[in-house]
TrEMBL record:
This is Site-specific recombinase, phage integrase family. It comes from the Bacteria. It comes from Pseudomonas syringae pv. maculicola.
Length: 126
């Protein structure tokens, strides 16, 4: 799918509070489904759909389950499929990006307002 086709499928959200405060924080967010992109030049982004490792990527809380599932799938893939050294390096690079995404998601509040880090900390105290 090319950039023009993809741009028709993305919703743009504007945070008017940031504009009213005259803050330098991002105010335009592109809804990518499982995350938001805060890159003002989204349509010309070189990462295009490799968002997990991008600094402009703001994951939604719902992305955590998908990221954990993908991490498990990649782990199984690495065990089951014979790969060349180059192929293995690429897959392991993707795994590192997923780990970074999961770490980002540790601070994104869940539906009850607590972050996964807070939930896990409470569970370890029991």
């Amino acid at each position: 799918m090319d950039r023009i086709q993809m741009s028709h499928m993305v919703s743009v959200l504007i945070d008017h509070d940031v504009i009213a405060r005259r803050s330098s924080d991002p105010y335009t967010f592109y809804d990518l489904g499982d995350s938001y992109c805060s890159n003002p030049f989204w349509s010309s982004c070189p990462h295009r759909m490799a968002c997990a490792g991008c600094d402009f990527n703001i994951p939604k809380a719902s992305a955590r389950a998908q990221a954990l599932e993908s991490k498990a799938s990649i782990g199984h893939y690495l065990e089951a499929v014979p790969l060349t050294a180059d192929e293995r390096a690429i897959v392991e690079g993707d795994l590192e990006k997923l780990d970074g995404l999961i770490r980002k998601l540790d601070d994104v509040p869940t539906l009850d307002g607590r972050t996964p880090s807070q939930i896990e900390a409470k569970e370890t105290l029991k």
